[in-house]
């Protein structure tokens, strides 16, 4: 904020020099000018406080640009914040600085009031397209469009507070997307940080997110840090439009990089605006010296500096005094201290010191207006409220010291964010876990903080104040009725809602049950009230609803849980019995819904969740319950449609295969035979629980489900938890919840449900931050850096050709790919370093085979992209480039991907013509087969496509030629002249216009590179491909451990073992892994998990593959084949076990069985080479020879026939045996050389770089990107499996 005021003073000075300045000039020239056409076309509204002290001049400059571009946009200007014209009057009012009590200076540089959102809203209401303001609070530029869009009342302070919080969170840009995050190491992509987006609903709840494909991180922690930034008292954050209370804000992670924010409260604003003035306070000179060389830190000590850079600053009222210091300090560079290496940045200059002066001014004394097209209108601003009293949040639990405590850095138990306003420092501290909070309170007392900060505090004036932010529960203070709350699901739901902060009202017919549940809730610290009511009678319901509203003044939610059923075959149900079930379940639901709506929710909104009496619907003996269920289902849908206009959401939960606490009351054959058999009939062999139903009810009631209405959701053991197997415990009560046992198990089911929990959350015991962890991390980071260095050499060499391309009006190949891809969409590069250190390549600068390739999205279509890297050797194809093309075509075939080729190639590298010729012909054959298979190929010919290279576009389905660039011909002018004597130009033989207008080879003629790519994107838009793509919309949880920790898991020494489950825990959803045959063989690990919400089988190793491990893995592959689950192979094996025991136990037989299973399975296979992958173990783990759909490697990985040391020893033993057999004395020196040279050669040929160069994998990936890559690949495979192609016999031909 202080920096902003300094900017205002600078603008004021600029305006004095030039009356047309005084605003942010670059806002007009650099920001708006290039974007105005798009803003106009897309009807985007723009609000900016770039007007500074001269917003009218900003408007005039922008208006000139609009007229020059022929655009008609309405610009509004907000006026009234600048108090400089009133300075003389202000000097007579005895104004004091609001913090220090100092008098108002006589000379001011700037003086601006912080206005609010109302004038911006009014400008938008009157049709303004662009609103320019002077000084407004930052949050107002977000609140104003919300007031305009949703027409919120200016007295709906809770919504105004939520809207202001949305603005507060994003006002500092990438700070809330991880740009200034305590745990900055968790943030990836700092070079492409995503700026925040808030998606705000009409009820003012909002989600913080960022653009897809950008760097950064949006988590509860990153958003929480921004919430506490510079807010001072969280219960009284004073803004012009509202006094905001952020003390009960609730944050919830609702998806990757998506955080839901609710719970801000508000009160009437104050009657004053805050004014920030600036005034000159002398001059300042800052000089910096660099201390360089050996022992630099020690050399800095004599001048009492803790830094190697010495900084000296002086301040004086007169500029001349500062300049005298600036001239004299120059001598210090040679004589002040050892190793001073000169002044940084040359001789220092004196700069004016601008100080901030803050005070309050009555709103009534300001005339706020808007100017639209020269017409000025005064704006009525609400007067505010003088009473700003509120109930202070009580201090929570404070830990008591016993002398047994340990000392840890604060950062290990808390996040923090600091920010300054004037002389005020705001530090927000957020506990990482609730249990840490009492200890933080005990240590961060006002006294201890003051003592710690004493070096910057004024001992007489400064003080430290600590505020509490309790956070809020999802249903804080909401009034919710739960019928049938005395037992079963109703009891469970009442407990859960009370624990989440609601005022719960439970109803039922039996007072004893209601009293017992009320006592339980009160003991747990909840709020509860009970009413005895028979909901089957309409007048009872009407009176009960009225009593609740009268007592609590509101009704936010209703859970219609009351019901009943009894087992009976259809032929045995009497009329009275059928009527009783229908009245219990259907009639009472109708009465309750109607009265809740009529008496309260029609005017105030609310949420209703019904219960369909379907606990046994469709089961033998429960037909009457099914009939009632159908009625409740349809009643829910009708109410949702009719009452939605009033802001009332109505949903329904239908319990399916669940256990009920009432089951023990059943008798006869139903209890003896049917109930005990239920679990065995459920697909997951488990029953749902009452707690699962209550969790679903709470979710549907909450704001998080604000987008759901009219839905009936079936919750049971067959569906509610996906593939997770969580059989219930073997006790009558399980899993405590705030003192309430959530899952009651009837006695009749205890024996049937007493099973072990199979699906487990992997518990990782990696000592993050330990010395060993850091050593491992640094070693892997060094290997990542080595790979990136090679990649960068190739990119740098390509970009070195930019001047040449610019001169020709061409775009570099890398930029062509970037231009073709959808903005912010994912892209997985394929085979990027193929050919590294092979043929002509020495250091990686020529790696890649002359091709840039990968899978990405073009106009929303997932496709394979291949671009000639014509910036290097004219894009000629090396032998490995041809092999790479064959691999890319194989991927396109297998994954049913269209292909986009951006071609500009001199054809085959003639130095290796013999190695290229035959395989090059195979690529042409594949093109024909791709077309025949129904896989479109689109080619943009950016330049040369000569000789055999001309057939690449010729065999494509769509060809786009670029005017004055395309040269697509079999024989160029020199060859034509030599062979036939004919003279012709390149344009006549193969130019773009010729192919588009005469030969008909090209379907489209582009003006330049960019236009050619634009046309290609248009072609993809019209392929009818997206429309036939089966969409995935899966929800899933991120792993419980950060991907960053993968760096420290893999030992620096390949000889040191590690547990691959620690890797699995960091790449699978929620770190959950369902392991198979865990006890049978520990070295081969098999199990199921989900990645990105998609089921997958995982096979990995913790060492060699034993006979048991081979059998186990082969069987697991058969199980995945049976269930059509893709397989993920994570390589970490020395190969098959050797030795007498292994041989006698059939290692060859069982190993062969495993290789057969891997080779013949039809399910998709993905391999990640995590560490070692040696010998036939590589085959067994689906290395390249076993044809996985995709295979990627980590930079530390090794693939070889055997370990390098073992290979050296083997050759030594063989050579020594030959020498002895020949009667020679073994030559130890020669044998040592043979062993060492063999080991060194095999070590070099086993590295990740060597293997990726040989095309033994599809690329090297950063371990931290493994999960993202796997999700992308699995989605690619999923699309392929669900896509139906339209093959034709011969492919597309140009007739």
UniProtKB/TrEMBL annotation:
Residues 777-1035 form the CoA carboxyltransferase N-terminal domain. CDD domains: TER_DECR_SDR_a (cd05369). InterPro entries: AcCoA_carboxyl_beta (IPR034733), AtuA-like_ferredoxin_dom (IPR056362), AtuA_N (IPR010839), ClpP/crotonase-like_dom_sf (IPR029045), COA_CT_C (IPR011763), COA_CT_N (IPR011762), NAD(P)-bd_dom_sf (IPR036291), SDR_fam (IPR002347). One of its GO terms (molecular function) is ligase activity. It comes from Oppiella nova. This is 3-hydroxyacyl-CoA dehydrogenase. Residues 1038-1284 form the CoA carboxyltransferase C-terminal domain. SUPFAM superfamilies: ClpP/crotonase, NAD(P)-binding Rossmann-fold domains. Pfam families: adh_short_C2, AtuA, AtuA_ferredoxin, Carboxyl_trans. GO terms for biological process: L-leucine catabolic process.
């Amino acid at each position: 904020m202080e920096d902003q005021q300094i900017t205002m003073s600078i603008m004021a000075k600029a305006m004095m020099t030039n009356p047309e300045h005084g605003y942010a000039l670059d806002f007009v020239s650099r920001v708006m000018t290039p974007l105005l056409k798009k803003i106009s076309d897309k009807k985007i509204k723009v609000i900016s406080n770039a007007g500074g002290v001269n917003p009218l001049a900003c408007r005039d400059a922008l208006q000139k640009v609009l007229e020059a571009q022929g655009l008609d946009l309405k610009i509004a200007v907000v006026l009234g914040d600048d108090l400089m014209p009133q300075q003389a009057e202000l000097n007579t009012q005895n104004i004091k600085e609001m913090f220090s009590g100092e008098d108002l200076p006589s000379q001011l540089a700037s003086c601006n009031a912080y206005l609010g959102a109302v004038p911006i809203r009014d400008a938008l209401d009157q049709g303004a397209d662009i609103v320019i303001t002077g000084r407004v609070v930052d949050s107002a530029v977000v609140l104003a469009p919300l007031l305009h869009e949703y027409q919120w009342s200016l007295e709906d302070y809770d919504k105004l507070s939520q809207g202001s919080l949305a603005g507060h969170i994003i006002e500092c840009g990438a700070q809330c997307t991880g740009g200034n995050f305590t745990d900055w190491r968790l943030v990836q992509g700092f070079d492409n940080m995503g700026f925040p987006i808030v998606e705000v609903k009409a009820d003012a709840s909002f989600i913080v997110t960022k653009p897809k494909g950008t760097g950064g991180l949006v988590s509860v922690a990153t958003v929480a840090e921004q919430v506490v930034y510079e807010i001072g008292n969280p219960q009284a954050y004073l803004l012009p439009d509202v006094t905001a209370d952020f003390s009960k804000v609730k944050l919830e992670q609702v998806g990757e990089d998506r955080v839901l924010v609710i719970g801000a409260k508000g009160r009437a604003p104050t009657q004053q605006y805050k004014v920030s003035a600036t005034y000159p306070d002398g001059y300042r000179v800052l000089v910096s010296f660099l201390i360089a060389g050996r022992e630099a830190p020690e050399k800095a000590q004599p001048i009492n500096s803790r830094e190697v850079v010495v900084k000296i600053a002086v301040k004086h009222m007169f500029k001349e005094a500062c300049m005298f210091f600036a001239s004299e300090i120059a001598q210090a560079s040679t004589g002040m201290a050892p190793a001073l290496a000169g002044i940084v940045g040359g001789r220092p200059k004196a700069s004016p010191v601008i100080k901030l002066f803050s005070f309050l001014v009555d709103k009534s004394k300001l005339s706020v207006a808007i100017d639209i097209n020269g017409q000025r209108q005064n704006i009525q601003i609400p007067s505010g409220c003088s009473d700003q009293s509120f109930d202070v949040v009580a201090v929570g639990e404070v830990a008591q010291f016993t002398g047994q405590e340990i000392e840890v850095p604060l950062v290990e138990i808390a996040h923090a964010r600091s920010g300054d306003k004037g002389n005020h420092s705001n530090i927000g501290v957020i506990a990482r876990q609730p249990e840490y909070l009492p200890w933080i309170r005990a240590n961060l007392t006002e006294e201890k903080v003051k003592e710690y900060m004493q070096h910057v505090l004024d001992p007489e004036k400064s003080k430290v104040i600590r505020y509490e932010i309790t956070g809020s529960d999802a249903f804080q203070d909401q009034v919710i009725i739960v019928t049938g709350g005395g037992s079963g699901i109703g009891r469970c739901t009442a407990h859960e809602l009370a624990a989440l902060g609601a005022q719960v009202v439970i109803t039922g017919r039996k007072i004893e049950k209601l009293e017992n549940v009320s006592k339980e809730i009160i003991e747990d610290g909840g709020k509860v009230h009970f009413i005895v009511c028979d909901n089957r009678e309409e007048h009872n319901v009407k009176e009960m609803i009225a009593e609740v509203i009268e007592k609590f003044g509101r009704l936010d939610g209703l859970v219609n849980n009351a019901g009943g059923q009894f087992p009976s075959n259809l032929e045995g149900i009497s009329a009275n019995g059928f009527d009783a079930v229908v009245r219990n379940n259907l009639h009472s639901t109708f009465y309750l819904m109607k009265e809740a709506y009529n008496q309260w929710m029609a005017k105030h909104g609310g949420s209703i969740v019904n219960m369909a009496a379907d606990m046994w619907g469709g089961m033998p003996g429960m037909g009457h319950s099914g009939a009632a269920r159908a009625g409740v289902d349809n009643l829910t849908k009708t109410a949702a449609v009719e009452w939605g206009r009033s802001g009332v959401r109505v949903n329904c939960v239908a319990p399916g295969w669940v256990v009920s606490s009432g089951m023990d009351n059943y008798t006869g054959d139903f209890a003896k035979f049917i109930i005990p058999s239920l679990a065995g009939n459920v697909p997951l062999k488990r029953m749902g629980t009452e707690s699962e139903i209550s969790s679903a009810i709470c979710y549907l009631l909450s704001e998080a489900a604000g987008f759901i209405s009219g839905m009936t959701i079936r919750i049971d053991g067959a569906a509610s938890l996906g593939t997770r197997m969580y059989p219930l415990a073997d006790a009558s009560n399980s899993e405590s919840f705030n003192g309430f046992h959530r899952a009651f198990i009837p006695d009749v089911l205890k024996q049937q449900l007493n099973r072990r929990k199979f699906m487990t959350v992997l518990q990782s015991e990696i000592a993050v931050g330990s010395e060993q962890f850091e050593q491992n991390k640094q070693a892997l980071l060094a290997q990542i850096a080595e790979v990136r260095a090679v990649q960068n050499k190739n990119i740098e060499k390509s970009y070195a050709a930019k001047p040449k391309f610019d001169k020709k009006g061409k775009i570099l190949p890398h930029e062509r790919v970037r231009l073709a891809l959808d903005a912010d969409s994912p892209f997985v590069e394929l085979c990027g370093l193929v050919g590294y250190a092979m043929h002509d390549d020495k250091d990686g600068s020529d790696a890649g085979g002359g091709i840039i390739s990968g899978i990405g999205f073009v106009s929303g279509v997932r496709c394979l992209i291949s671009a000639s890297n014509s910036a290097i050797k004219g894009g000629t194809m090396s032998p490995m480039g041809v092999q790479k093309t064959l691999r890319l075509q194989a991927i396109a075939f297998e994954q049913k991907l269209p292909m986009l080729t951006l071609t500009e190639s001199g054809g085959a590298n003639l130095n290796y013509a013999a190695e290229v010729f035959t395989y090059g012909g195979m690529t042409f054959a594949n093109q024909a087969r791709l077309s025949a298979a129904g896989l479109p190929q689109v080619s943009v010919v950016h330049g040369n496509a000569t000789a055999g290279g001309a057939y690449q576009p010729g065999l494509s389905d769509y060809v786009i030629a670029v005017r004055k660039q395309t040269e697509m011909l079999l024989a160029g002018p020199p060859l034509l002249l030599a062979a036939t004597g004919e003279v012709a130009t390149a344009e006549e033989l193969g130019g773009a216009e010729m192919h588009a207008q005469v030969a008909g080879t090209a379907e489209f003629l582009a003006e330049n590179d960019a236009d050619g790519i634009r046309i290609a994107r248009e072609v993809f838009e019209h392929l009818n491909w997206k429309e036939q793509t089966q969409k995935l919309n899966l929800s899933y949880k991120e792993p419980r451990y950060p991907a960053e920790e993968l760096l420290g898991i893999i030992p620096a020494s390949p000889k040191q073992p590690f547990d691959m489950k620690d890797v699995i825990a960091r790449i699978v959803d929620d770190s959950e892994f369902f392991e198979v045959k865990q006890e049978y063989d520990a070295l081969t690990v098999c199990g199921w998990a989900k990645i990105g919400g998609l089921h997958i089988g995982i096979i990995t190793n913790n060492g060699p593959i034993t006979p048991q491990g081979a059998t186990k893995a082969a069987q697991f592959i058969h199980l995945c084949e049976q269930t059509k689950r893709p397989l993920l192979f994570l390589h970490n094996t020395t190969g098959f076990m050797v030795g007498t025991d292994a041989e006698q136990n059939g290692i060859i037989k069982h190993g062969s069985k495993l290789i057969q299973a891997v080779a013949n399975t039809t399910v998709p296979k993905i391999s990640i080479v995590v560490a070692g992958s040696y010998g036939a173990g590589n085959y067994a783990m689906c290395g390249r020879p076993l044809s996985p759909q995709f295979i990627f490697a980590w930079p530390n990985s090794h693939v070889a026939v055997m370990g390098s040391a073992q290979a050296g020893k083997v050759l030594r033993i063989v050579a020594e045996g030959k020498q002895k057999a020949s009667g020679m004395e073994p030559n130890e020196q020669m044998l040592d050389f043979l062993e060492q040279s063999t080991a060194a050669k095999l070590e070099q040929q086993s590295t990740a770089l060597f293997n990726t160069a040989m095309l033994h994998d599809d690329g090297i990936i950063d371990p931290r990107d493994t999960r993202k890559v796997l999700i992308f690949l699995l989605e690619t495979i999923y699309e392929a499996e669900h896509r139906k192609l339209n093959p034709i016999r011969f492919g597309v031909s140009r007739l």
